[in-house]
Amino acid sequence: MLETVDRISILGSPVSVVDSYRKVYDIIVKKLQSDNSPFYITVNNVHTVVTAVKDNHYNKIIRNSFLALPDGKPLTVVAKLKGVKNISRIFGPTFFEKSIDWSQKDGIKHFFFGGDKITQEKILRKISESFPACNVAGNIIPPFRKFTEEENNKFLKVINNSAPDFIWVALGAPKQEKWIYENYSKLNKGVMIGIGAGFDYFAGNLKHAPHWMKNFSLEWLYRLIQEPKRLWKRYLITNSLFLWYIALDFLRLRKFD
Hints:
The protein has about 260 residues and is an alpha/beta fold.
């Protein structure tokens, strides 16, 4: 019997109450072993939660996910302020690497969708060197534009023929979640997980923030230092909106559910 995972609403988006990477991994593997139906998981942070406030369809995608993981430290801080004690951050890139490691003993098959050629090559090389028993079913490097229907059907055919268990999707939010939602039901089996910058961290393109910055919810700042041109506007607007919305929520000046 599958374990029921509680959820807490943060600005109208559900966030799964989980307290360890291993617990999340075990829940997913049990689901895969007990049910062949395809499903998906969202990895949530300040950016996705704020996007879901303004985008009802995106909010629906998060609501319908099997798990909505608390990827961003601020989400767990807010959850604890709301009285939830047994919740811990599940940072997507760290969960990705731990899953690669743990799956060496479980026979879990992985498929990588997204990123560029160089990044994918780095991923496969690192797995070969550091996680030799990991089973890689295949990978696809999609174009950085909207996929044609023919391309999309071809992608899904390749994935299904590879019969993977974990399909890691790195297209960036909210694009990856919307693509997952439109296509996960076309899989024969497996779980789709939107991993965002997870490929870049694993490949070494991005560096993890120091632990003290993670503990103080400042990982966004470390990321901004590494990618200022791409992220400054997103963080300035998104982080400001998040703080504003949270203030409205706690003061009960606006309902987000």
